[in-house]
Amino acid sequence: MCGIAGLIYYNSALYDSLGSTLLSLIQPLETRGPDSCGVALYSGQVTAAQIKLLLHGNSPTPWPQVQQWLEQQLAAMNSPVNCQPIPEGLRLVVDLANGNFDPVQCKQALHNQFPMLHVVGMGQAMEIYKETGAIELLNRKYGLNHFSGTHGIGHTRMATESVVDTHHSHPFTSSYDLALVHNGQVSNYYKLRFQLERMGAVFETQNDSEAIAHYIHYQLLQGKSLEAGLYQLLDDIDGTYTFLVATRDKVALVRDKFAAKPAVVYETEDMVAIASEYRALLNLPNFDSNATIREPSAGEINIWTVLPTVKETAGRTLVNR
């Protein structure tokens, strides 16, 4: 039993409250899983010629040496980097304009040089922050109350199938700007993992939720739309699940064919909020009891497009099975 939450803003006047409001949605759900928590937050804080990487180390890490090594490696690729220390990690902004930066090669070289490190997230919009323990600790550690952005997803975990540490916490990512949070179990996990690894997926944990992220990435690599990939997922992934997947410009909510795991959606002209329980939505600033509030059906897929500069075209795609 875990708790998931998501938030999408269509009104730019609300952007500055993204971090604080998403955390307020997750906090009441800690009773569903107090082991660990995490968020994936999206913003336009870098240019089209830059990419963000967030590194985390679970054990004592020589961060000055890590930073020096990264700066030397990226200078050799003619890709200037700005390294910002964060608690137990580094936040990097890499300039891609004139360089030959290869993120896969860099990630592998980093792992070989510093095996205790993990690349928690990579992309132009996405930043992922995780912590064992309570939401309040996550907030104090990274100052997420002040994060400004367009959308985000979050999770609070009760571990049932893998260890309790920051690395096994949600959200999981499998490619640029793609993040996933999941409540439930994947019953055909080992078969699915074997198939995905044969197709080139590299797993970093034993958490069954990571397989969903890799599956979605594989579907996108085949040229499928997010909607088509999720539609196929309902046939290929067995188990009980409700999950949120976020990309740079979309957020999707998926419930399994049995609706075994809860979800509630709150929609107004300015925003969409999703949570495992209704009580979490009551923490929204200016909660409107006249908003559209509903429980998605079994096998239902909702996809919201995040287009903050073209509000009139933003909205929801609904798929029922």
From TrEMBL:
Molecular function GO labels: glutamine-fructose-6-phosphate transaminase (isomerizing) activity
Could you tell me the superkingdom of the organism this chain comes from? Bacteria
Task: Enumerate the UniProt keywords alphabetically.
Answer: Glutamine amidotransferase, Transferase
Q: What is its EC number?
A: 2.6.1.16
Q: Where is the Glutamine amidotransferase type-2 domain?
A: 2-307
Recorded hits in Pfam families, A to Z, give: GATase_6
InterPro entries, alphabetized? GATase_2_dom, Ntn_hydrolases_N
Which chemical reaction does it catalyze?
Answer: D-fructose 6-phosphate + L-glutamine = D-glucosamine 6-phosphate + L-glutamate
Q: Where along the sequence do coiled-coil regions lie?
A: none
PANTHER family attached to this UniProt entry: GLUCOSAMINE--FRUCTOSE-6-PHOSPHATE AMINOTRANSFERASE, ISOMERIZING
Name this protein carries in UniProt: glutamine--fructose-6-phosphate transaminase (isomerizing)
